[in-house]
Design a protein that fits this description.
Elements (H helix, E strand, L loop, with lengths): L6 H19 L10 H4 L4 H4 L14 H10 L3 H8 L9 H4 L3 E7 L3 H11 L5 E7 L4 H13 L3 E6 L7 H15 L7 E6 L2 E3 L3 H11 L8 E2 L18 E2 L5 E3 H9 L2 H9 L10 H5 L13 H8 L19 E2 L10 E3 L2 E3 L5 H6 L4 E3 L7 H16 L35
Parallel strand pairs: 1-2, 1-4, 2-3, 9-12
Antiparallel strand pairs: 4-8, 5-12, 6-7, 10-11
Helix pairs in contact: 9-11
Protein name: GLY-16
GO molecular function, one term: acetylglucosaminyltransferase activity
Subcellular location: Membrane
């Protein structure tokens, strides 16, 4: 060992060491390290306008991604190197208004991870429910995510198939689990593995604040043919139809988790067709009979819905009340193709999706015009890192003044947080 003589020499060497460390070892990076999404080379300028590029994007090798994760000796490190998961809240406003998600997924691990990483924030909570009939590698790799992220919670469920009772049973169990966490999350939302966020976390926070504790649930008449021979009067509440995707405030989640009515309704719906579409609407549409915080009177809404536009005292911009999920059910509004009765969005739908009021869109596939999916994610990331100063959430809380027949009670109409 050679010892330097003199204090000046020691200081000089120490100073050089500090400079070297800063420049080559510990220099703070102005940008986070790149991931798979960053590394995808796509010219999104045309795509974001709904126009195709001359050269199509090759399908991403999802098997290679899954194999890399499966063969990794440190899967947490590998998943974080391939998918960007924010490690700190991006703003104080977001930190003070955490959200929660219930995810029901069963295949396409890569797409699930792209979606999860896009909505992930360390202050939020995530429940991932997976049916035991999914592939074993899919189950194992998703379960291990809970070891990588303390706010990601895994639930192994009984076999899940399209339209089965276990869909809503699993989502409700996720809601109950999340309601018992000490985390002070404010709103719950359901997502599937083929959904994509249309709003950033900050935008969602501001939108949900404007709802002021009101649930946002699709409102439709329940078709009796769904009962498959059961007697509707045996239901604990009058039935309404709604999408599985709903925005549920924390107070409502706590209320539902402690009440016996949801479980009674689940049992009644067990042998109906597509049980999940009779659940949230029924629970949140019977204010007065079942007074869930944030609930509405759906009967009154359905009564004046058809005539409301003609009675408005001010013009509207064409928006509707339901903002949880954007989904197209008719072929004429779909620019890609239909699958199971709804649109698989593609490049021609991108510009419309960017203008949609909803928080998420359903559905996009990596195997069908993947440029649409990845350019939407890239645009979502851009706005996440560079918030849009012109984004206005106040329009989500506007309630047009509606005049309807005085022989109908309208006491609950003031609770409606919808936009016509």
């Amino acid at each position: 060992m050679v010892r330097l003589k003199g204090s000046f020499s020691c200081v000089a060497v120490y100073g050089s060491l500090v400079i070297f460390t800063y420049l080559f070892v510990a220099k703070p990076s102005s940008r986070p390290p790149t991931d798979l999404l960053d590394d995808l080379e796509i010219n999104c300028t045309n795509i974001l306008q709904g126009l195709k590029n001359e050269k199509q994007l090759e399908l991403i090798n999802t098997k290679m991604i899954e194999d890399k994760l499966w063969n990794s000796t440190d899967r947490c490190h590998t998943v974080k190197s391939m998918f960007r998961f924010n490690e700190v809240p991006l703003s104080e406003e977001e930190a003070r208004f955490p959200l929660s998600y219930g995810l029901l997924v069963y295949k396409e691990l890569s797409q699930v991870l792209f979606m999860l990483s896009s909505i992930y924030q360390p202050q939020n909570e995530y429940c991932i429910a997976v049916g035991e009939n999914s592939a074993s590698t899919f189950l194992i790799l998703l379960e291990e995510l809970s070891d990588c992220f303390p706010n990601v919670h895994f639930m192994k469920r009984p076999p899940i198939t399209w339209g089965s009772y276990e869909i809503i049973n699993s989502v409700y169990d996720c809601l109950k689990f999340l309601s018992h966490l000490k985390s002070n999350w404010k709103y719950f939302q359901y997502l599937s593995g083929v959904d994509i966020p249309l709003k950033t976390n900050l935008e969602m926070v501001r939108i949900l604040k404007s709802l002021n504790g009101t649930a946002n649930v699709e409102i439709k008449v329940y078709e009796n043919r769904r009962l498959l021979g059961q007697n509707e009067t045996e239901s604990p509440l009058p039935l309404f139809k709604s999408s599985l995707s709903s925005l549920i405030p924390r107070k409502a989640a706590n209320y539902l988790a402690s009440s016996s009515i949801p479980q009674q309704l689940l049992e009644f719906l067990r042998n109906t067709w597509v049980a999940d579409e009779g659940f949230w609407g029924t629970l949140f549409g019977n204010k007065g009979l079942f007074d869930v915080p944030g609930s509405l009177n759906f009967e009154e809404w359905i009564y004046f819905k058809e005539n409301a536009r003609a009675n408005l005292t001010k013009p509207t911009d064409g928006w509707f009340y339901y903002i949880s999920r954007h989904q197209i059910w008719f072929e004429s509004g779909c620019h890609n193709h239909m699958k199971d009765g709804s649109c698989v969005f593609g490049i021609g739908d991108v510009s419309n999706l960017l203008q949609a009021k909803a928080l998420v869109a359903h559905k996009l596939y990596l195997t069908s015009e993947p440029e649409a999916y990845f350019c939407l994610l890239k645009e979502h990331r851009r706005r996440t890192l560079n918030p849009d100063s012109t984004f206005d959430a106040s329009k989500y809380s506007e309630l047009p003044q509606v005049e309807i027949s005085q022989d109908r009670p309208v006491s609950e109409l003031t609770h409606l947080n919808w936009i016509l």
